[in-house]
Amino acid sequence: MFPEKLINTLQQAQDIVVLTGAGVSAESGIPTFRDALTGLWQRYDVNQLACEDGFLSDPALVWGWYEWRRHRVLKAKPNPAHLTIAKLAKQVPKLTLITQNVDDLHERAGSHEVLHLHGSLHQPRCIACESLYYLPSIDMMQLTTADQECRINPPRCSLCGGLIRPGVVWFGEALPTKIWNQAVQASLQCDLMLIVGTSGLVWPAADLPYQAEKTGSFVVQINPTLTSFNSIAQINLAGKAGELLPQALSICISRKQ
Ligand code: OAD
């Protein structure tokens, strides 16, 4: 079922980059953004919820929406795709995991030093002085009450009184410089790039596979639907990450033994 070339490349790879998007968390029950029926941007207004102007015009709406998403993530569990990526990192000399996701499911699956290009739901900060704000821990028993999106006034910064905003990168904002530079460097150096579960529609993250391909890495994509990466990936595996990734890795491991 898997091309021989893929198994050989996976077995021989010394330096792998895995670039993930919302699709890697879909099988954990976290909605993607652009899937036709279930994507968040099909149901919600991206201009209201994913840019600073939207937040400033209605902070309670935006803060409540991100709290709803954070609660959803807290209740979710890593799926076999997250777990396989963490396992793969132990099998190869170097693996850099770059994600556009703002959840922490990669970390909870055992991945370390994940490069979060778009920030984190779990690390809000002051909109004025940028101090980090530590969210109070949530009683897991109470999580069911946060099942609905609702308006919640954002907390205030204890240092300057500014509004606390979600710790995600919004449209029109720059990616965190250090993380972006690390992601570019890793993409230029890797011998294999695995693109998992991203539509490739958001830049500059979508440029990373092109950088990898330009410098000669082998590019593999896992996604049930076509994306712009189909034309640059040497291998396109059409299907769910939580099914294909564990199968591919188990073939590699059994061949090595
Ligand atoms: P999208 O919603 O744009 O794309 C999700 C991709 O995952 C689609 O191509 C789906 O076909 C694919 N997919 C769905 N289920 C899958 C599965 N089980 N296995 C593998 N793939 C699957 O999400 P992203 O590309 O991550 O920004 O979106 C990029 C950015 O746009 C996000 O980081 C977010 C959003 O606005 C921020 O949060 C700042």
Can you describe this structure?
- The chain has 257 residues and is an alpha/beta fold.
- 38% of the residues lie in helices and 12% in strands.
- It contains 11 helices and 8 strands.
- The strands form 2 sheets. A 6-stranded parallel sheet has the order 3-2-1-6-7-8, sandwiched between helices. Strands 4-5 form a two-stranded antiparallel sheet.
- The site of 2'-O-acetyl adenosine-5-diphosphoribose (OAD) has 29 residues, from helix 2 and helix 11.
- 2'-O-acetyl adenosine-5-diphosphoribose binds next to helix 2 and helix 11.
Task: Output the keywords.
38% helix, 11 helices, 257 residues, 8 strands, two-stranded antiparallel ribbon, binds 2'-O-acetyl adenosine-5-diphosphoribose, alpha/beta, six-stranded parallel β-sheet
Brief synopsis:
With 257 residues, this protein is α/β, with parallel strands linked by helices. It has helices at 4-12, 23-26, 40-43, 46-49, 52-57, 59-75, 80-91, 105-109, 177-189, 208-214, 241-256; strands at 15-20, 94-99, 115-116, 125-126, 164-165, 192-196, 218-222, 235-237.
Terminal-residue CA separation: 20 Å
Tally of individual helices:
11
**What summary fits the major beta sheet?**
6 strands, parallel
Share in helix: 25-40%
Task: Please outline the helices and strands.
Blueprint: H1 4-12, E1 15-20, H2 23-26, H3 40-43, H4 46-49, H5 52-57, H6 59-75, H7 80-91, E2 94-99, H8 105-109, E3 115-116, E4 125-126, E5 164-165, H9 177-189, E6 192-196, H10 208-214, E7 218-222, E8 235-237, H11 241-256
Helix pairs in contact: 1-11, 7-11, 9-10
Bound molecules: 2'-O-acetyl adenosine-5-diphosphoribose.
